Amino acid sequence: MQRLSQGAHLRLLLPKTELDLAVTFDCGQCFRFLPQPNGEFLGVAHGRILRLKQTETEILLYDMTEQEFLDCWQAWFDLSTGYADILAALTRSDETLQKAVAFSPGIHILRQEPFEALVSFLISQNNNIPRIRSSIERLCERFGKALDGAYAFPDPQTLAGCQVSDLAGLGLGYRDEYLLDCARRIATGSLPLEDCFTLPLEQARALLRTIRGVGPKVADCVLLFGFHRMDAFPIDTWMKKILAAAYPQGLPPEFLQYGGLAQQYLFRYARWGSRS
DNA sequence: GCCCAGGTATAAA
DNA sequence: TTTATACATGGG
Fold it and tell me: How does DSSP assign A4-51, residue by residue?
C-alpha cells in the first residue's frame, strides 16, 4: 500500500474492495465513527479526532503525519492483516459466506482500545445501535478529555471515581452499575484486562465473564473488537437465526480460527443484504 | 400504549 | 443443565 504525504494530510492508495470504511464503520463493531453530510467520516479513537475521506482507489487521512500513521493508525485499521487469504479460506466451501462477502467486501476488524470496546458492548446489551451511540457519546462528553470539537473516550480511572448518580441522564439504564463495577476493577488492577490478548480463548472468555453484565455475547464482542481475537464468535439473536438456516450441521471448521470475521459479514448480510 | 433493541442475572423447573 | 422473566430507556 503506497502512502503519499500531501501537505498536512496523508493519502493511502488502497482500493475500497480491500478496506471499505463505510461498511467497516457501519457493521456494528464501533460506535463513534459516522459518515458526515459531505461524505467524509469523522470519529474519535486513541484520544484524537480522525477525519477521513474515501474514494474507490484511496483513503485520505486529514491532519495526519506518516509517523503518526505508522505508530498508531496502520494497526488501528488493521492494514497489515492478510484479509484476502483469510476470506479465501473462509469462502472456499461456504456459499452463504460467499454471498455475504460479495455483498459488501472490505470489512476490517478494527483494533479498538480494549476498555472502550468493553464499555461499548456492556452498553450494547438489550439495546439498539442509535441508543448505544448516543449513550457512548454522552459518556464521552461528560467524562472524556475535551478535544477540538469532540471528546476522547474516558479512562477507567475517571469512571472508577464516579457514583451511579453521576451517570444519570446518559441513557445507560440498569447498565450503569455494570459500567462502574468494571471501571473500578480495572482501575484498581484487580482485573488484568490486557491478558485477553494472550490467554487461550476459553480462559479469556472466563476472565471477561467475571465482570457483571458480561455474558457470552458481550465477552466475544470484546475479544473480537477490543483484542482482535478473530477466533471469538459473538452469537446474537440474528446470528442464531442465520446459523440455524445456513449451518444446520454445525459451523465450518474455518470458523474456529476466523469466525469473528465471518460473523461480521454474515451479520451485515442478514440485516441489509437479503432484503427483497 | 405496545414492541423492540447486536443480552444477562436470577430464579425456578 | 435448560427455560422463563425482569431489566431502563428511547424510538418506531
Answer: EEETTEEEEE--TTT--HHHHHHSSS-SS-EE-TTS-EEEEETTEEEE
pLDDT band with cut points at 50, 70 and 90 for residue A276: very low
Q: Is the CB of A216 under 7 A from strand B?
A: yes
**What single letter denotes the amino acid at residue A261?**
L
Confidence of residue A245 (pLDDT cuts 50, 70, 90): confident
> Does residue A173 approach strand C to less than 7 Å at its CB?
yes
Question: Each residue of A19-50: pLDDT tens digit?
Answer: 999 999 998 999 999 999 999 999 999 999 99
How far does the CA of A126 sit from the C1' of B6, in Å?
8
Asked whether residue A237's C-beta has any atom of DNA/RNA strand C within 7 A, the reply is no
By residue count, chain A amounts to 276
Taking each helix axis as running N to C, give the angle between helix A237-246 and helix A255-268, from 0 to 180 degrees, rounded to the nearest 10: 110
By three-state DSSP, how is residue A58 classified? Answer: strand
A130 touches strand C (CB under 7 A): yes
A170 touches strand B (CB under 7 A): no
> Sign of dihedral through CA atoms A5, A153, A262, A232?
positive
Interatomic distance A117 CA / C6 C1' (Å): 26
pLDDT (tens digit per residue) in A174-230: 999 999 999 999 999 999 999 999 999 999 999 999 999 999 999 999 999 999 999
Place of cell 459451523: A251
C-alpha cell at A205: 472468555
A212 CB neighbours strand C below 7 A: no
3-class SS at A85? helix
